[in-house]
Amino acid sequence: MKLAVACTxxxxxxxxxxxxDSFNYVIGTQTFGPAYQFTSEPxxxxxxxAILAMGSNTIKFRVRNVGDxxxxxxxxxxxxxxxxxxxxxxxxxxxxxxxxxxxTGKTFYLGHWExxxxxxxxxxxxxxxxxxxxxxxxMIDWLNARQRAxxxxxxxxxxxxxxxxxxxxxxxxxxxxxxxxTMTRDVLPQVTxxxxxxxxxxxxKSPEQLKTALDFIESKLSPKPGIAGKRVFIGEYGxxxxxxxxxxxxxxxxxxxxxxxxxxxxxxxxxxxxxxxSTGAQRGFWLIDDKGVKQSVYFTHQKFxxxxxxxxxxxxTKNNRVPTAEEFSRYAVTLLP
Length: 337
What we know:
Blueprint: H1 2-22, E1 27-29, H2 43-54, E2 58-63, H3 68-75, E3 80-85, H4 90-100, E4 106-111, H5 115-120, H6 133-156, E5 162-170, H7 173-177, H8 183-187, E6 195-199, H9 207-219, E7 232-237, H10 243-260, E8 265-267, H11 296-319, H12 325-332
Parallel strand pairs: 1-8, 2-3, 3-4, 4-5, 5-6, 6-7, 7-8
Helix pairs in contact: 1-11, 4-6, 9-10, 10-11
């Protein structure tokens, strides 16, 4: 009898720890094409380990195919994976993820890079004339086909304890609010995506503008009765400036995202990926710089995770459940003065 009680207790402790490990702490970062490294490991592996060491259970990176490096990252103790899924075999990718990681508690969000640049075929905000009806319809068809492939793979693949969702990414939301032809205005209302990522460089310096943009994006979403809570997240923000100001502005974005209810707020990025073409200098989109120096904003993330995990653990002990997203966000804002 005593052995059975002990076993039951250990199972309960393990289940509680798993809930805390897989909880969505919202704040995170990503790794794309780092311009430097400090070990002989593949850059994806090195930066994934750096993100884990900082305390995050969320990672975002590009997947063209699932090779050895990608599998190694999928085996790491991340709970939330946001992926630029650059494949036409979406159905097979989803089936692979569901079968391989069933029972792990992992969640995968499959999406793409900034859709407004894709729609324009350029990085020029003035190229509205390039947003033709044919391009808009092509984007609508492409996103609906990807969503359909994900939904069908989930329907066809027995699974539990793992989830896969689909997202699109918008980035020229200020232009959309001005009535310009954009992803948010012309594509989003016509698609059935699960989530929307907002690469928010156009509003990131103003919490009020950022929240207004998030509201506007949300107003264009088609309903998804099976998904609770807000479905718009901040997929990119970042400030290549002096460390103290970088940290201040990052905290401002994190607070705004948490207050609004974003499922994720993701800093660009762990290691910088952009080089100034005229000087050859690193641009400074980093949490750890090219000398291996952890920036102020790195320590903001690290301390946030420590305190957030402690809050969730104590909440679970006191209430016999983890906090809701709303309960967590209300507390998490206080960690970012």
